[in-house]
């Protein structure tokens, strides 16, 4: 029986290997396929050297945010197998590494800026000794601070990390002016086998112990389009991917450390921290793992519609880590247009088609009551009040109110006859009316 089981295992292993090889041939250089092959080598055939090679190939083929996290996780797993046999790694370790890495970069940058300030002070035509001494002391202070930060982080990761060792080498070369020690750090970074792109991380990934819904969601994320924002239980942004930065109009690094409420208009931004506190205290989740139609606030203070799914990736209470997947809210129906409004009928934003259909600019639309677009505003306002009253229940989320026919005013042409339907977005306490006509 044991021989028969072993034979079946060999057949299954060989078939899986054949599938992976076919996938690599069909999708050459695809990071996801390379990650699957690396996982096969780690868990099935126990070939860690070959797995490391596959992970290096994956990291050099422009992996996405989640793929970069999974590469990081797999490399840490290989390291733990080599050292202790312990295969555990959670998202908290990943996020903690990113914090430490950013602390090194920040201290490194401060030291370089202090050096620049010093040399600028000595290049002035009217050189004052007092100014030069101030600049020199500032340069020494930032240099010592950076050394302490680097030592603390390097002690935290005694086995070394390629990316970390590389920037430490640059610090030794360009700030400490010690090319000998810098060359040793560079050599050790190469030895660790992590390429330049390995930890150039902008976003989060799948929770190791996350629930099935969260894990399933990460496989459906299109990282070139969908924004990913990872926050802690206090609402502080830990990681953001490129798509999220682009969607909200922020540059790389601008959002990390800020409160996520800055991405929301009022009244959502003012109440978001309360929602988080309630979850931390009670453990009762009201919006997790469900799709919500909401509005967001860009850097230039423009409100735009989104679809949001939030998952708890790891931890409980104050140690919770959340991932939000943000998708632009787009209609696939060319015969319909949509506006997003508060429960009292004030328009928050609209799609581009609405402005085109009614000959108006977005500035003419935002902030106006929906009823003012109707030829019979009293009738339209009464119907909207009924919709708002029906939206009070949590069960209303995703449902649609019976439609109404109305004549809407065009800026230049005769009124347009349309049929208006309302669906409910937002949260149970802060509803949004999504009008479709």
Main sheet: strand order:
2-1-5-4-3
SS content category: alpha+beta
Terminal CA distance: 67 Å
Gyration radius, rounded: 28 Å
Strand content: 15-25%
Give the overall shape, derived from the CA principal axes.
globular
**What is the average per-residue confidence, as pLDDT, rounded to a whole number?**
75
Q: Quick one: biggest sheet? A: 5 strands, antiparallel
Helix content: 40-55%
Q: List low-confidence stretches.
A: 85-90, 193-219
Strand elements, count? 10
Instruction: Give the number of helices.
Output: 14
Instruction: Summarize the helix and strand pattern as letters.
Output: HHHHHHHHHEEHHEEEEEHHHEEE
Write a short abstract of this structure.
This protein has 437 residues and is of the alpha+beta class. It has helices at 2-26, 31-43, 48-59, 65-83, 91-122, 129-156, 162-174, 179-192, 212-218, 242-248, 268-282, 352-357, 362-365, 377-390; strands at residues 227-232, 237-240, 291-297, 303-314, 321-328, 338-342, 347-350, 400-408, 416-426, 431-436. The chain is 48% helix and 16% strand.
Features:
five-stranded antiparallel beta sheet; 10 strands; 437 residues; alpha+beta; 14 helices
């Amino acid at each position: 029986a044991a021989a028969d089981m072993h034979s079946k295992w060999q057949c299954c292993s060989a078939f899986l290997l054949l599938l992976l090889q076919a996938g690599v041939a069909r999708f050459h250089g695809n990071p996801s396929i390379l990650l699957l092959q690396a996982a096969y080598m780690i868990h099935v055939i126990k070939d860690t050297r070959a797995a490391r090679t596959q992970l290096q190939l994956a990291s050099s083929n422009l992996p996405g945010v989640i793929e970069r996290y999974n590469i990081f996780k797999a490399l840490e797993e290989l390291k733990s197998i080599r050292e202790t046999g312990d295969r555990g790694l959670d998202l908290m370790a990943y996020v903690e590494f990113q914090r430490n890495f950013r602390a090194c970069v920040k201290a490194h940058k401060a030291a370089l800026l202090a050096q620049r300030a010093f040399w600028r002070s000595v290049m002035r035509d009217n050189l004052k000794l007092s100014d030069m001494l101030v600049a020199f002391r500032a340069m020494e202070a930032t240099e010592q601070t950076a050394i302490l930060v680097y030592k603390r982080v390097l002690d935290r990761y005694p086995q070394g990390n390629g990316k970390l060792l590389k920037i430490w080498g640059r610090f030794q070369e360009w700030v400490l002016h010690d090319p000998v020690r810098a060359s040793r750090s560079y050599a050790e970074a190469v030895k660790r086998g992590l390429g330049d792109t390995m930890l150039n991380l902008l976003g989060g990934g799948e929770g190791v112990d996350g629930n099935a819904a969260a894990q399933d969601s990460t496989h459906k994320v299109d990282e070139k389009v969908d924004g990913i924002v990872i926050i802690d239980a206090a609402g502080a942004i830990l990681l953001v991917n490129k798509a999220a930065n682009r969607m909200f109009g922020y540059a790389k690094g601008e959002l990390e450390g800020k409160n996520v409420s800055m991405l929301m208009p009022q009244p959502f931004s003012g109440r978001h921290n309360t929602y988080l506190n309630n979850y931390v205290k009670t453990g009762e989740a009201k919006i997790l793992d469900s799709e919500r139609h909401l509005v967001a606030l860009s850097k230039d203070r423009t409100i735009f519609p989104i679809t949001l799914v939030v998952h708890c990736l790891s931890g409980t209470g104050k140690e919770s880590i959340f991932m939000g997947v943000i998708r632009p809210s787009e209609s696939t129906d060319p015969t319909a247009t949509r506006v997003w409004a508060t429960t009292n009928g004030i328009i928050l934003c609209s799609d581009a088609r609405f402005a085109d259909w009614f000959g108006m600019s977005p500035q003419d639309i935002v902030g106006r009551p929906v009823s003012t677009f109707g030829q019979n505003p009293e009738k339209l306002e009464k119907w909207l009040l009924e919709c708002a009253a029906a939206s009070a229940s949590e069960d209303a989320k995703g449902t649609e109110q019976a439609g109404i026919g109305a004549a809407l005013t065009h800026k230049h042409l005769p009124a347009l006859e349309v049929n208006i339907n309302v669906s409910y977005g937002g949260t149970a306490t802060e509803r949004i009316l999504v009008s479709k006509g």
